[in-house]
Amino acid sequence: MTLADRTKAILESVIKDYIETAEPVGSRSVVKKYNLKISAATVRNEMADLEEMGYLEQPHTSSGRVPSQIGYRYFVDSLMEKENLTDEELELLKRIFSENINGWGEIVEKVGHFMAQLTNYTSFVVLPAVRIDEFKHLQIIPVGEDEAIVVIVTDLGLIMHRKLKIPVSVTPEELYSISQVFNKAFTNKNFRKINRTDLDYVRDNLRQKRNMIDKVINTIDHLLTDTNEDRVIISGALNMLNEPEFQDIDKLKSILTILKEDGILKDILPTNVTDEVDIKIGSENVAEEIKEMSIVMTGFKTLGQVGKIGVIGPVRMEYWKAAGTVESLGEIIEDLIKERF
Amino acid sequence: MTLADRTKAILESVIKDYIETAEPVGSRSVVKKYNLKISAATVRNEMADLEEMGYLEQPHTSSGRVPSQIGYRYFVDSLMEKENLTDEELELLKRIFSENINGWGEIVEKVGHFMAQLTNYTSFVVLPAVRIDEFKHLQIIPVGEDEAIVVIVTDLGLIMHRKLKIPVSVTPEELYSISQVFNKAFTNKNFRKINRTDLDYVRDNLRQKRNMIDKVINTIDHLLTDTNEDRVIISGALNMLNEPEFQDIDKLKSILTILKEDGILKDILPTNVTDEVDIKIGSENVAEEIKEMSIVMTGFKTLGQVGKIGVIGPVRMEYWKAAGTVESLGEIIEDLIKERF
DNA sequence: GTTTAGCACTCAACAACATAGAGTGCTAAC
DNA sequence: GTTAGCACTCTATGTTGTTGAGTGCTAAAC
User: Fold this and answer.
1) pLDDT band with cut points at 50, 70 and 90 for residue B303
2) pLDDT for A187-196, tens place per residue?
3) What is the pLDDT of residue A298?
4) How far apart are CA A104 and CA A95, in angstroms?
5) Is the CB of B249 less than 8 angstroms away from the CB of A253?
6) First CA to last CA across chain B, in angstroms?
7) Nearest C-alpha neighbor of A242 from the set B229, B191, B252
8) What is the pLDDT of residues B206-217, one digit of tens each?
9) B282 to each of A108, B293, B314, how far by Cα in Å?
10) How far apart are CA A127 and CA A324, in angstroms?
């Protein structure tokens, strides 16, 4: 459906005003605030038309207008312009990342934090479960008399470790050569496809330590299966407290529960992601729990898989800012991870 | 001040009733609910006395009584009995810890979570900054062509690692022997007191790799200084939403901010801890921000230092349950860490 | 002297009602 | 097609009245 320019301008004014004030918008205030060169009565007529077409709604007969879901959709698709990060914001981000960063998780955490701060909504970053199939290197390090640590480095550069009891009689040098045997046998092989030949090789070379070998293999198995779940990092959940739509304790409670109880949000987010910014408004969300919320998100590639990054907030959201920020940070986080890992 | 038995009984009834209902307690309801064999009028007289002595307060002249801070203090010190964990609760805890636990942090997290669940308040666990002075073992592990990971095991059993660029020419075997040199020189020495002799030893034995050695030393230094801050794990902050005293959005906001914004709570907690359960009621707390909250906490020994564990909730708190739970879990967490590390 | 029934009094909470004001739709004039 | 004017609608806010839980005090009972 294509609208006349004036009609578009009025629709845009109403939506922007409502997003700003959270109050139903009257004809007079539109004229005043946006200096339209027409009278309030004309605006009233237009608004009545827009309501008929489904873009606006009236909470009750004698109140101002509020955007409908369709109205927001039209606004997002045809009226607004994404507002990407400003130079100052980019500068700030650079400063944040000039500090010491310890790995992966910390990058994600900081980006999420930054995003929540910029948008004043709640940010989320979903890190895909990393498939840990192959290992690049294994090392058994002695600690104290009867303990050792198995350290595994995977093909994706992840480092994992776990403690292990060992017989007192084993020397550090033996541990080193055992590690070497493992490395010779397994390096760059898919752990789950290790075959008889590989295992025989290890056994032949370490005949006398059968007991310990089993323990090590067991530990490796544990490490590789353990971490196999998506991680979600949520920032700025408390920003919801500032939104007028969540002044009601019960609503607040249900939304904070979704955001904070582990793993709920993860299962609720849209599943098919691309590298385009995707916006789900209100009941466009499939999940019942967030039919009064909007989500702005995008995908990013990391370690060969696709993660999700975005914000969640009230339907009355500053979509231009949210979409621009998500778009910018989606690209940035991809670069940051690539650069350092 | 010592009170007559009947007076004590009435005070206890009023406090328990108020803690349960959050409503001012009237004379009639005390008599009814606790089957006292005296009339409401007598109770009224007693309550007037208790008010005069400062144990009770009246929100307004014709309302029931509410415990004062002094009243709660007397209750906590002289009237209540700590309610330690029940057998079922201990059983549940056992089941939680029969699952796989990955290190230290996870123990703490699970205990905190459990404590929040049992008490319905917000739990906190403060892990002291671990002084990382000595290392027990160091290993440089090759990853790919031009990278290696430095893994350090400290005297307290902590494992830390960090990636490092290395010259392509260095072989895995060389890395191993370099590691050995470091180990010979430094093991069980306080890192910050490593002296000229130690360094000379390393240098003499690794003359040709000067550049890399410096990098490794640098990395070690980074690792040892980096983690030097207390960690706080907070669970069940959303439990506050259920308390009638936090139905007001502004109060809720300020308390959730304290609990969630990183690091605020840590600086606010009482500083001198013992292995006794310590209870701070309302304005007994030094920090302005939590003068309307109560804290029940205790210290626990871990890795040679003292951590804090406890709950924070409204002044109208079920102190008996909170104190018992904190006491039990304080001992349990100490044992759990000792047992596994 | 202590306890208790009785009663007048107090005050918050709630409901019923009145009022103000922002905004509308419609009509008639421009 | 646009706009001024006006009657109408409906929420939000303030006012008033009523109810009921609870008190303190007095005087009688134990």
Assistant:
1) confident
2) 767 666 666 6
3) 97
4) 18
5) no
6) 47
7) B252
8) 766 777 777 777
9) 38, 5, 8
10) 21
How many Å from the N-terminal Cα to the C-terminal Cα in chain A? 48
The pLDDT assigned to A204 comes to 74
Read off the DSSP letter of residue B134.
Answer: B
String of DSSP letters for B20-89: HH-SPBPHHHHHHHHT-SS-HHHHHHHHHHHHHHTSEE-SSTTS-BEE-HHHHHHIIIII-------HHH
CA(A61)–C1'(C18) in Å? Answer: 22
Q: Are A201 and A176 in contact (CB under 8 A)?
A: no
Which nucleotides in chain C have some atom under 7 angstroms from a protein Cβ?
3-6, 9-12, 21-27
In the block, tokens 């709640």 appear at A122
Burial zone of A308 (CB within 10 Å; 0-12 exposed, 13-18 middle, 19+ buried):
buried
Residue B202 has what DSSP assignment? H
CB distance A214 to A102 below 8 Å: no
Complete DSSP assignment for B304-317: TEEEEEEEEEESS-
Provide the Cα torsion B317, B320, B322, B327; round to 10°: 150
Q: Which amino acid is at B41?
A: A
Closest-CA distance of chain A to residue B105, Å: 14
Q: What is the pLDDT of residue A220?
A: 75
Which residues lie closer than 8 Å to B35 by C-beta, 6 or more apart? none
What does pTM read for this prediction?
Answer: 0.85
CA distance, residue A235 to nearest chain B CA (Å): 10
Cβ of residue A141 closer than 8 Å to a chain B Cβ: yes
d(CA A276, CA A331): 10
Q: Residues near A59 by Cβ (< 8 Å), separated by ≥ 6?
A: A24, A66
Residue type, A275: D
Instruction: Tell me phi and psi for residue A221, to 5 degrees.
Output: -60, -45
CB contact under 8 A, A142 and B143: no
Res A22 pLDDT > 70: yes
Tokens of B76: 């906590």
Main-chain dihedrals φ then ψ at residue A171, nearest 5 degrees: -90, 160
Contacts of A175 (CB under 8 A, 6+ apart): A140, A141, A142, A148, A166
Beta-carbon contacts of A338 under 8 Å, excluding residues fewer than 6 positions away, are: none
Encoded tokens for A12: 């845009």
B335, B330, B334: which is closest to B298 by C-alpha?
B330
How confident is the model over A129-179, as pLDDT tens digits?
766 667 778 888 887 777 788 888 776 667 777 777 788 888 878 888 888
Decide: A223 and A230 in contact? Cβ < 8 Å.
no
Mutate to test the interface with A, among B238, B257, B340 (most CBs of A within 10 A): B238
Residue B146, token pair as written in the block: 């031009």
Return the axis-axis angle of helices B87-98 and B103-119, rounded to nearest 10°.
150
* pLDDT(B14) > 90: yes
Centroid of chain to Cα A138 = 31
Residue A197 DSSP one-character state: H
